[in-house]
Prior knowledge:
Chain A is 64% helix and 9% strand. The first copy, chain A, contains eight helices and four strands; from the N terminus they run H-E-H-H-E-E-H-E-H-H-H-H.
Amino acid sequence: MDVKTLCLGVLSTGPHSGYEIKKAFEESFHYFFRASFGSIYPALAELEREGGVVCEAVAQARRPDKKVYAITRAGRDALRAALMREEPRHVVRSEFLVLLYFAHLLPPERLAAVIDTMTVEFERIMHSDLESYERNHAELTPGQRFALGYGRTMLTAALGYLHRQRGQLLREVTATDETGRPRVASDLAVAGD
Amino acid sequence: MDVKTLCLGVLSTGPHSGYEIKKAFEESFHYFFRASFGSIYPALAELEREGGVVCEAVAQARRPDKKVYAITRAGRDALRAALMREEPRHVVRSEFLVLLYFAHLLPPERLAAVIDTMTVEFERIMHSDLESYERNHAELTPGQRFALGYGRTMLTAALGYLHRQRGQLLREVTATDETGRPRVASDLAVAGD
DNA sequence: GGGCCCATGTAATTAGTTACATGATTAT
DNA sequence: ATAATCATGTAACTAATTACATGGGCCC
Lengths: 193, 193
């Protein structure tokens, strides 16, 4: 799925500028899709060339014109077609889990810091999601509630797992050497001081 | 984190060919990292140039030589350094959730098919993960158990959510029009037939 | 005979990010 | 004064994927 389709999706709820679309990405799609200005502005320009959107330049005091894009009938058709065509992929790319996978190669302090950083990040995302959910709750479509609820469920599960397993993992890596095998008794004695 | 680092990671457990590394990616990292031959083979070639790995060509009957790579001391240092440097990111890219977010633009049959496809896919991943977990359980490092347990926890939570919410969402989209607003009473009567 | 497994590698292409370019307004 | 918000856009770069190229073995 490309940025063009997501832009059409945002515009299907009403006219917006590129800047506002970026904000919508950050607020609503943050958990499962991201895009930068460097992909959004060219996407909108191409959509305009193709006739999927029309653009009205709104003059601003001492600022670049705000270019407000509105979806056309053809754009709605293209959005619908793209959503029908798209295969339901779901891909996780996590350097966090790679780091944990190789926990035995890291000092325990680094490991603890990695887990704590991720915990804070997950909490941050969940709070901002919950906030926007409560702000807009009444106007959300069933699909939006479903997608946001999915994110909330995953974040809750992740935070719970990190909370439950953190201490255990840290104890285990302290008790094993760099090959993942148990340390000898003398090492354990030192570690247990 | 690049493919080179992950290759070093796989090779830190023993010598392997590029083909075998690809299999290891599929078996062990599938949930949180992926790479194709088109990135693995060049990564190994570059690691060899840099001295992070050494390569022994093993002649094969009627096949290309199998090139077995082994990590060097310098390679282990580079792996460790990369793991210390790497920031713990965790990014989800899900066309699946985008489709659900725009559920009101899809026919209910399509929506059901999307959810069911994803359910089957999640179950498939979980079963193959569980299998490899049970096969290797005793030899796994604490970090590997943690990372695999994380994936299992997420998949369980996802499947539970999909199972619980599927019917509800389908009923709701049947009862709302394409703007997400409730259909008029006459429509509901038809839908309820 | 069709399809998957084994086995390596390269080239073209894709789809994005980051950094650059510009600059006023408002809040801390 | 320093950072964040508003506002658009391009160019260089990155890091991967997909398709291509090659080909025997093995199972159903």
